[in-house]
Amino acid sequence: MTEQQSVFLAKSRIKANDLEHKRKVSFNIQKYNDSVVKGKQQFDHLETARQKAKNIKWKTIERLDKYLEQFEARFTANGGKVIWAENKEEAQQAILQICREKNTRQVVKAKSMVTEEIHLNDFLAKNGIESVETDLGEYIQQLDGEPPYHIVTPAMHKSKEDVARVFHDKLGTEPNLTPPEITKIAREKLRQKYISAEVGVTGGNFLLADIGAVCVTENEGNARLCSTFPQTLISVVGIEKMLPSVNDLHLFWPLLATYGTGQQLTVYNSILSGPRKADETDGPTEMYVILLDNGRTNLLRREVRESMYCIRCGSCLNACPVYKNIGGHAYGATYSGPIGSVITPHMDGLEEYKHLSFASSLCGNCTEVCPLKINIHGMLLENRAIMVDMRLNDNMENFSWALWKRAMLSRRLLNMAGAGIKDKVVNKVFKESWCKDRSKLEFAERSFNKMWKERTV
Questions:
Q1: 377 burial via Cβ count (<10 Å: 0-12, 13-18, 19+)
Q2: Calpha distance 30→169 (Å, rounded)
Q3: What global pTM score does this model have?
Q4: Rounded-to-integer distance, Cα 343 and Cα 349, Å
Q5: Residue 370 covered by a domain
Q6: From CA 335, how far away is CA 314, in angstroms rounded?
Q7: Whether 113 contacts 97, CB under 8 Å
Q8: What CA–CA distance (Å, rounded) separates 202 from 227?
Q9: What is the pLDDT of residues 107-155, one digit of tens each?
Q10: Most Cβ neighbours (<10 Å): which of 90, 133, 167, 179?
């Protein structure tokens, strides 16, 4: 058992028995579910929209190299600069070099899972640069010393009382503040950061190949401030976020909003195509886009290629019975839930994260709710097959399944083993995984096979 698997099992056991944690998550997910039902009503033909979006992403990923080159050419022509990063270390060093050239002491950062992926905040802190999260949920998590709990809703596991406690402990505010009071204090604290920061950092929800631009979708306006006040803007974006054309946004923006938060459209949608022009009054004087691979081409080479279609709406997390029981932090990875269990082993190491693909009931609800109809639970099965083909499972597991298969394929062997033998074997073999939290299994004295024979004689 790997270290990551041990940590996953330990955290899962704690959270699965934490009733207060379940209450908070269930409450927030139910609010999301209610909103999504309303958001879907904006589509006359929802299934057609989903299939069309999937077809567009299929075309994009099949020609990703061409679209990336087109994006670079257009963005460079707009006055921007493109940096290709093969891994997180290259991305970190590129950002550090830019910051040092600008004598940067402080960075303001919009919500971005890809910067969580490269651990940007910790890296900059080690190099004497303060990186401030400006999204309210991310700001709460940063104050509390925690990573995001959810792809879209970073502090989903916290109640308003929990947030008030964090502000009291970390900022010295009055205890038991109301949500409006908390928001007002966060706004006051962050406004000064926008003004003093030398560099702004964003992620990107989409890349547009035809016009060479980065799309940023948000609900608070903080990303616009991060990309407007600082003189230098850095957008770190995964290569899979590509779309062929700006004309595709009329489909992808509503789908992302509906399945992400239940809105018809998010409040702020920005298209950043480079530094400000001579006749423009605001915006950065320099803009960089870092195109991050960091294991994404591993996904292209395998049977889980379809996972590159993901637009990070988080709907599969909200639908997953496993996620709803153990929460986002138990996964021990940047991307949690079903889609995280698919991509993390290929991006962060098959050996260390192979267990995530087995942490699923395979109910298929993740596939059902995905706006792009990605076959998520099918890819979880593909991952399991890859692990076996690569012999990443141990010999005892192989022997156990071989024995199980032999027994299950033989009616004679099953009939030879009476209920007492079956009880002992199963309850001993699964003593830790089953009996620790449940009652022992008890087999009937007469199997269905025996009863059927007695009936037909």
A1: buried
A2: 29
A3: 0.92
A4: 10
A5: no
A6: 10
A7: no
A8: 7
A9: 999 999 999 999 999 999 999 999 999 999 999 999 999 999 999 999 9
A10: 133
